[in-house]
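Researcher: Structure for this, please.
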Amino acid sequence: MSLLIRTHIQLATSSLRRNRTRSFLTALGIAIGVASIVLILSLAGGINRLISTQIEKTGADLIVVRPSSGKDAVSSIVDELTASSQYQKSNLSFKDVTTIDKLDNIAAVAPLAISQATISVEHNKIPSATIVATTPDLPKILNLPLKNGQFLSDELKENTAVIGSALAFSLFGTTSAVTKTIHYLDEKFMVVGVLDSINDPINFNNVDFDTAMLVNASYLATLTDLQIQQINIKVAATDYIDDAIDVITEQLSASKSGEQNFAVLSGDKISHPAGSLFSIISGMLALVAGISLIVGGVGVMNIMLVSVSERTHEIGIRKAVGASSSNILLQFLFESIVLAVLGGIIGFALGYALAFLVSLITPFNPFISWEILGITGATSLTVGILFGIYPALKAARKNPIESLKYYR
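Model: Predicted structure, token format:
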């Protein structure tokens, strides 16, 4: 059996070599589709790994509370994508923050109320800056290194702010911005600290802290309505995390009259919604890549039909000397498979080359795994079989007498 397979592969490669240019262009159609899939899977894996690494650095003692519609995962993501503002109908409140803070084994609690607003300085204005209303406990939970000054504190005036290094440079042309004043909501906020560059615009908090302005949530609540999108919680020790999740869920449910319109998350589940959002985007792009792969498969079928037509006389000779219909079928099917697998190999290399180029301008590295290699290999093999079976059957069913009479 192995000898028969080896013989068919040798015949297939020999036939493809006789028409190198045509074979390469046909394989290129497969390669483009496979490269697109590899690029998408690699970057999606890189994004998920980036977020997972951030969570691991933050610690296994992290719990996140977010609003939840109670719908299934796909419906929730669709709601987030179609809403005019993510978590527009958030049901989290400062009362929830206080409730959690009073529980046992809770080391720190920090809400995140994220909005976009215009801020300005004397000769500069940013029309859509990221404003994060939080509490002084946030650095205890997240790794937010300071470049200058200090973080928000209960001992300081309430109208103080900490800004990201990129925002400081955009507003003042320097990161030495401590004691400078920012105008926001017709109020003056004094900068008491500047964060060191973090360079993680994609994270589970959905906040690019390099371009954000952090202010005291209790003070900002007196100036405008705040919508808390997330509550970050640090437990006293990782051993308490499961019990803390149960107690938080029970207490919040009781305070909301039994409504389960929130989600208490830990571990890998924290990567939602950023990870889920990119999964949706990746799925859409993979669908487009799949269409291009189908187009490449149609190209393989077309070339194989041409090859069957050109080699009709050869088929007649083979049958005349004893080749069975199954031998003819396997001969042309293997030719289609070899063509598709060749395209898959080229596409795999091309996809990762593109992924590494993209990584040069993005904050995440391409994800390399055996699973992606397996997916691309199985995809190429499937395309070769599906789009090669019809030409192979057509070749196998040819009448040997009629085939011998055929001349080009």
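Researcher: Any notable elements?
Model: The radius of gyration is 30 Å. The mean pLDDT is 83.
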